[in-house]
Amino acid sequence: MTLLYEHHYEHVVTPLLPIDADLMAEMYVIIYDSVSKDFAIAVSWYEKCIRREWGVVKNIDRDERKIKLIRDDGCWWIPIDNLLQVERV
């Protein structure tokens, strides 16, 4: 059973601003640490609306440019190009 706050969606009414290179590099480091050290992260990304989920990154698909975020109750393939925020939990 999932809780309501775990599936928080925000509708986007204005165009999203591009993410600068420094912030993107910091997000890549956090994602790599999640894969190598097996700790949970919270990820926000754009997919018709802004989605936010947390879990552990188990796989990075460099050809498709996606990360696989896994939690006990779900699994998501998240496009790297659509990332908005990544933070340690």
In N-to-C order, the SSE pattern is EHEEEEE
Strand content: 35-45%
Low-confidence stretches: none
Structural class: alpha+beta
Question: Can you tell me about this structure?
Answer:
The chain has 89 residues and is α+β, with helices and mostly antiparallel strands. Helices cover 19% and strands 43% of the residues. The chain is built from one helix and six strands. Strands 1, 2, 3, 4, 5 and 6 form a six-stranded antiparallel sheet that branches. A hairpin with a 3-residue loop joins strand 2 and strand 3. 12% of the residues are buried. The mean pLDDT is 88.
Q: Layout of SSEs?
A:
Elements: E1 9-10, H1 21-37, E2 41-46, E3 50-61, E4 66-71, E5 74-79, E6 83-88
Antiparallel strand pairs: 1-3, 2-3, 2-6, 3-4, 4-5
Q: Keywords for this structure?
A:
single chain, 6 strands, 1 helix, six-stranded antiparallel sheet, 89 residues, alpha+beta
Quick rundown:
This protein is α+β, with helices and mostly antiparallel strands.
